[in-house]
Design a protein that fits this description.
284 residues; mainly alpha; 88% helix; single chain; 11 helices
């Protein structure tokens, strides 16, 4: 009898040890894979944004924020699951941050493009060639427009064909405004028309397009605000009720019927927000 108990304890200890080793290896492999993917994405995305930061240092910084934030949430809430959810969200947040930074940079580039084209057209009419006009425009500009056109000039000076340099810039900033500009410049160079006149018309067209888009955003701002309020209000009301009647709200998270209600709420919230977004989103 004693031998059987010892044998069972020994097998149980071996099983726990093997399980712990497997979990440790899986966690280590996942961590290394996440680190490699984080550094690769950071290097690529930050280079596209003309932000030059060591990916290793950025990874350590992001890891520190994730650990500290999860610990703070755990200490205040006392719920390990919530802290793990926060850690998972922070682990996936770099993609969202890159997307927001890229969208902001593209918007700044598009708003500066009409003035840049008008400046180049004015210098072309004054007798400068295209390369000198673009070089002077780059010197007088700032922000994304200076970075992109400066890189275009450096590529052409290194022997890259001008049309290929335009395609490379369009690949880095795939906006409709730049696509019109690249197409107009290519046609003017191939056909032999007045490039200054083409750039002036492009500048005026893009400026009018941006004005219309701004008016549409102003008119649809109320609908977007309503969608945001609709998405946030149920959670705020639920939090308030949980503070007033915690016993009644506990059933929403501890029973199968409550979990089903939460799932239904999330689905309907997502559908409502999606429909409102589709209604207020107007492409120009």
């Amino acid at each position: 009898m004693a031998f059987n108990i010892v044998l069972i304890a020994f097998l149980l200890a071996v099983s726990v040890f093997v399980f712990s080793v497997i979990i440790y290896r899986l966690f280590t492999q996942a961590a290394l894979q996440y680190e490699a993917q984080f550094k690769e994405n950071a290097e690529t995305n930050l280079a596209d944004l003309f932000i030059f930061i060591d990916p290793a240092r950025l990874f350590v910084f992001a890891l520190g924020i994730m650990a500290v934030s999860s610990l703070i949430v755990w200490l205040f809430s006392g719920n390990l699951l919530i802290s793990l959810i926060v850690a998972a969200f922070l682990a996936s947040s770099p993609k969202i941050i890159y997307s927001l930074l890229y969208s902001r940079r593209e918007k700044e580039f598009n708003y500066a493009l009409p003035d840049a084209l008008a400046s180049i057209a004015s210098m072309l009419r004054a007798g400068s060639n295209l390369s000198s006009a673009m070089d002077l425009m780059v010197q007088e500009s700032s922000g994304p427009i200076r970075q992109e056109f400066g890189l275009l000039l450096r590529e052409t000076k290194m022997g890259v064909d001008f049309n290929d340099s335009l395609d490379n810039m369009l690949e880095r900033v795939p906006s409709d405004e730049l696509q019109m500009t690249v197409a107009g410049m290519k046609i003017a160079r191939d056909v032999g028309g007045s490039l200054a006149e083409v750039l002036e018309r492009l500048s005026d067209t893009i400026r009018r397009k941006l004005e219309i888009e701004g008016k549409i955003k102003a008119l649809t701002a109320m609908g977007k605000a309503q969608g945001f309020v609709m998405a946030v209000l149920p959670f705020c009301v639920g939090f308030a009720i949980a503070q007033i009647e915690p016993e009644a709200m506990d059933k929403l998270f501890t029973t199968y019927m409550g979990w089903g209600a939460c799932a239904l709420i999330m689905v309907m919230e997502g559908m409502g927000f999606w429909f409102i977004k589709k209604i207020v989103t107007i492409d120009v």
